[in-house]
Design brief:
- The complex is a heterodimer.
- Chain A contains 12 helices and 16 strands.
- By secondary structure, chain A is an alpha+beta fold.
- Chain A folds into 2 domains: about 230 residues, no CATH class; about 100 residues, no CATH class.
- In chain A, the strands form 3 sheets. Chain A has a 7-stranded mixed β-sheet. A 5-stranded antiparallel β-sheet of chain A has the order 7-6-5-4-8.
- Among the domains of chain B are: about 140 residues, no CATH class; about 100 residues, no CATH class.
- In chain B, strands 7, 8, 9, 10, 11, 12, 13 and 14 form an 8-stranded antiparallel β-sheet that branches.
- Classes of the chains: A alpha+beta, B alpha/beta.
- Chains A and B meet through helix 11, strand 15, helix 12 and strand 16 of A and helix 8 and helix 9 of B.
Chain lengths: ~325, ~525
């Protein structure tokens, strides 16, 4: 039995139960409401559990999606953003995007920025280029082009976004993840990005807090932010979104699991189609305001025909977490 | 698996609630008179006055002062020189007089609320430390009141915000004035009830006002309740509710028992001011139409030997025998609904089109260089590009409007094919259009549709006189008429029954809708 402790808070807290819950979770497309009256870090611990669960499963990486992501971004940049007269005001431009498509691509191991110049949707290739400065040998500017082909795109990534694979192929933090997952974490996964888990919060302070939290497992200590890949790691296993700006929430891609750390984030993203098929975890506590709660009640009662209580899972979670039955409710969406 | 218990009210199992119910003859009379005025006002669509009166009564019932003149403040009824009966009817005048008489009684005998509070703290204090939650606007007068008790031994802390509550440690008794409710009319935020730091509540409220204990329920249990069909009885929630009736009669006895049972919070919450009470007219072919009780409608009585057409109030129709009534329905032409509104809109069409063709990034700069004084220019520009049916969306100030149009003068001049003088006068005209649209949006075309209804009524009367002397020659489905030199299609619906007790949004009134749709307004 492993014990996970949260250090750096006044009292050392053992929240292993919530970690185990995430680690052993079976997806079922439910709405999971978990009310934790005094505990504000539970959402993060649970998320770490889910993240570790997916580390243990092969194919839980973004390899299949990666080239499409590059291609779609390049397409949108060339067709929409490159010649857009609105300075990224999607409401005015009515372009369907919520943020600017990036023009710059990078390759692991190279410092150069490549600019997207063309795409070929039939052959599925992206042409990127850069301008060479005049030298003594070639006293004029010249363009150099390279082509990104599907299947050979792993090392390419969009500037400012996490790359698919880690630079040195040497997974950081491997040891502590191994402890967390009982040695089951797959090495390859540790070095690859993954975007199927989203963590949505409206509280930036909370995110910052996660970065600074130190957790301890079997004598090993690590910062929570690093384990959740929140602090600029080269690969990202968790897609963290702030619900405050519309752009933040709308730019999320289609995740399989979404963790909302408060009601505000949940209510903000109800209407987002890409979140529809996902399993949602809504963590909230006694600090929620009356207005947010009544919004939640209104949402639930106006959708009551599509929601049923999943008593079996509710019981299971109350049992696993030691929470009271007045703190957990699992709803099936139909 | 552990058995599931529905642990509804985790924190509140042993909470005492001491309800001090205050009954007073003269306050009851004020309350019932206000209720009477409000119902009449709403029926006659005096919405602003009704809203103000509702605000006033909620405020006054929580106040501890002796001067209750604030009930009529900011309403036409506070001025003695207004001829109330002539403008608002005799019923309202009577009720206002009643209120005024009883306000004087409050001044003479004291405000029962403050007497009850005083009595409680001086005669039966339950412990030594109280936290009193009150709306911030009432704080000062309550402080004055409590200081006047000169309480020794008892410490009362007044809080007005949740943040102040959060800073408190556990304490024994919470005091507040008014009802516990699950909606916005609650006297105490449900946050405080969900996160109890106290063991006892002392609540001062007027007789008849009811408590709703659902705010005590934990959020998850609330979700469970919303999704299951069985409600919770109040007694399950709070272990002990102790009622302490407090009766104060002034110099005359409580007479009418029924008047005491008003629950303002419940009643006035139902007075959704955007909707109005309505009568439902169930028609043939599963159709329904709503009329507010005092609005007029045209109906045709099909009696064995003659046909008659009437222009009656909805409540009057309800008194008739429904078996042979036809309800007349017709569309009011647009020009009667908002006649002046339509007219000229050509200016906005031109400048808005030119505006949306601008390159916004550079145009915004040009506007800023011309010293346009508008905050959030980006958002405003977006707004000005859109067309609205009622108001021409444009800068609020004329100077800004001129800057906006001058910044695209080249485009406008080429579009309109005029010189700069011509443009200036064109801008003046465009501004006039904006002004006119703003005026019109306020005063709608209500009057015109009444006029039109009258003329339809007269036309039908004429039609029946000439064409249908007997009921056999009566076109059951409908017919068309010439009204104001335009064709008007008249549809007829047989009336099946009339029902009271609906609450309908204003825009649904007078529209023929299906039975299914109507059931939601009950």
């Amino acid at each position: 039995m492993k014990i996970i402790k949260i250090l750096s808070v006044a009292k050392e807290k053992d929240l292993s139960r919530f970690f185990e819950l995430g680690l052993n979770w079976t997806d079922s497309r439910c709405l999971n409401f978990i009310y934790t009256p005094d505990e504000k870090l539970v959402a993060g611990i649970f998320t770490l559990g889910l993240l570790c669960r997916d580390l243990c499963i092969e194919s839980k990486n973004d390899k299949n999606l990666h080239f499409n992501k590059l291609l779609n971004n390049a397409k949108d940049y060339l067709e929409k953003c490159k010649s857009c007269k609105y300075i990224c005001q999607p409401d005015l431009a009515k372009c369907g995007r919520f943020e600017q498509a990036q023009s710059q691509y990078k390759k692991i191991g190279e410092a150069k920025n490549y600019t997207v110049t063309a795409i070929d949707l039939i052959d599925r290739t992206i042409t990127v280029g850069f301008t060479k400065k005049p030298t003594k040998k070639t006293p004029y500017e010249n363009e150099t082009y390279r082509t990104i082909i599907e299947g050979y795109s792993d090392e390419w990534h969009i500037h400012g976004m996490p790359s698919l694979i880690q630079h040195e192929r040497k997974p950081a933090l491997g040891e502590i993840y191994k402890e967390l997952t009982n040695e089951k974490a797959i090495k390859a996964n540790l070095g690859e990005s993954y975007s199927q888990i989203s963590f949505v919060t409206s509280n930036l302070q909370e995110l910052k807090k996660f970065n600074e939290l130190e957790i301890e497992i079997n004598g090993k200590q690590e910062l929570m932010g690093k384990l959740l890949t929140l602090s600029n790691e080269s690969v990202s296993r968790l897609n963290s979104i702030t619900a405050i700006s519309r752009r933040g929430i709308e730019s999320a891609h289609q995740p399989k699991n979404i963790i909302f750390s408060d009601l505000y984030s949940f209510l903000k993203s109800i209407h987002i189609d890409r979140f529809r098929g996902a399993e949602k975890f809504i963590f909230f506590n006694s600090t929620e305001s009356d207005t947010k709660l009544s919004e939640l009640y209104e949402y639930i009662s106006s959708n009551r025909d599509w929601l049923t209580i999943n008593e079996k899972n509710t019981q299971m979670i109350t049992f696993c977490t030691g929470l009271g039955s007045a703190d957990v409710i699992i709803l099936n969406e139909t | 698996m552990i058995p599931l218990n529905t642990d509804l009210f985790k924190n509140n199992k042993d909470l005492d609630i001491i309800e001090v119910e205050i009954a007073s003859n003269y306050v009851s009379k004020i309350r019932s008179s206000v209720f009477r005025i409000l119902s009449i006002l709403l029926e006659n669509e005096y919405l602003d006055i009704a809203k103000q009166l509702r605000r006033n009564i909620f405020y006054t019932l929580k106040a501890s002062q002796e001067n209750w003149k604030s009930i009529l403040v900011n309403t036409p009824f506070e001025h003695p020189e207004v001829k109330i009966s002539r403008v608002y009817g005799e019923d309202i005048e009577e009720a206002v007089n009643e209120i005024n008489v009883n306000i004087d009684q409050v001044a003479v005998f004291g405000n029962p609320m403050s007497i009850a509070i005083k009595d409680f703290f001086i005669q039966n204090p339950v412990n030594k430390f109280y936290v009193l939650y009150i709306e911030s606007r009432l704080k000062t007068e309550l402080e004055v009141l409590i200081n006047s008790f000169r309480l020794v031994d008892i410490d009362i802390k007044i809080i007005t915000k949740i943040s102040e509550y959060k800073e408190l440690n556990e304490f024994h008794t919470l005091v507040f004035i008014g009802s516990i409710r699950a909606d916005d009319y609650t006297s105490i935020p449900s946050y405080i009830l969900r996160n109890t730091k106290f063991f006892q509540i002392v609540q001062f409220k007027w007789v008849g006002q009811k408590n709703d204990y659902t705010p005590f329920i934990t959020p998850i249990s609330r979700l469970r309740l919303l999704l299951s069909d069985d409600g919770v009885a109040d007694k399950d929630i709070i272990k002990r509710v102790i009622k302490k009736p407090f009766v104060l009669n002034g110099d005359f006895l409580l007479s009418n028992k029924n008047q005491d049972n008003i629950d303002e919070y419940e009643l006035y919450n139902k007075f959704n001011l955007d909707s109005s009470p309505a009568l439902s007219f169930e028609l043939s072919a599963e159709k329904v139409v709503f009329y507010s009780p005092n609005s007029k409608l045209i109906c045709i009585l099909n009696e064995p030997n003659e046909l008659t057409v009437h222009y009656l109030k909805a409540v009057q129709v309800a008194d008739l025998d429904t078996s042979n009534i036809f309800i007349v329905s017709f569309d009011v032409p647009n020009k009667y609904l908002n006649e002046r509104d339509i007219g000229s809109r050509e200016y906005q069409e031109i400048w808005k089109n030119v505006l949306s063709d601008q390159d916004f990034s550079s145009f915004q700069g040009a506007l800023e260089r011309s010293n346009i004084s508008v905050k959030n220019l980006k958002i405003c520009l977006d707004d000005w590009c859109t067309f609205s049916e009622s108001v021409v969306k444009a800068p609020q100030d004329k100077s800004n409007f001129i800057i906006l149009l001058k910044c695209m003068n080249a485009d406008l001049m080429s579009y309109l094919d005029v010189d700069s003088d011509g443009l200036n006068s064109w801008i003046e005209d465009a501004w006039q259009e904006v002004l006119i649209s703003r005026g019109e949006a306020i005063s709608g075309g209500l009057q015109h549709s009444f006029e039109y209804e009258e003329s339809v009524y007269k036309a039908i009367e004429k039609f029946i006189e000439t064409n249908c002397t007997t009921s056999s020659s009566w076109p059951n489905e409908g017919f068309s008429l010439n009204v104001d030199s335009e064709r008007c299609e008249i549809k007829l619906y047989q009336l099946n029954s009339i029902e009271f007790g609906y609450d309908v949004p204003k825009k649904i009134l007078k529209q023929i809708i299906s039975v299914q749709e109507s059931s939601s307004y009950r």
